[in-house]
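Bench notes, afternoon.
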Amino acid sequence: PWLLWLGVAIAMLSKGPVGLACTLPVLFLDRTIGARQRISQQEAAGFKGSAVAIADDLRRLCWARGIGLVLIASVPWYVLAGYQRGWPFVEAVLVYQNVDRYLTGYSHAQPWWYYFKTILYDFFPASLLLPIGLWVARRRFAEPAARLALVWALFAFCFFTFSGSKQGKYLL
């Protein structure tokens, strides 16, 4: 899964902690759901499933090595930026631009239901295909790629719905 973790590292470098917040939970959820689906199929065939199968599936992602790769790729940038620009810059990028903006919505504050109101015109004309896309994704949920796409889209929608700061481009 090295390419996967390289993608997470790129997300961290391009978006900061939001890159991690939008990828790591999705990986966890997708793997857990996929393992549960396999367990259900095995139990239907007469085999007994267990939480061990879920843990084994999650272990295959090599979390420690992957997060190590993400840190090796991203921490030097923050250290160099802090050295060149000073700690207030790093603090502003990590804390103010991510945590504070997510929790308080300082300049783009919107109510929690904002995306329910705007998703159709923010994604127009692609939003016309949303009902068909959700139907296809639901029918193909057992396929790993379709499941990952649906889990990722729903997680991003929920994650940014709970944010204090909302803009249509956040869901892109």
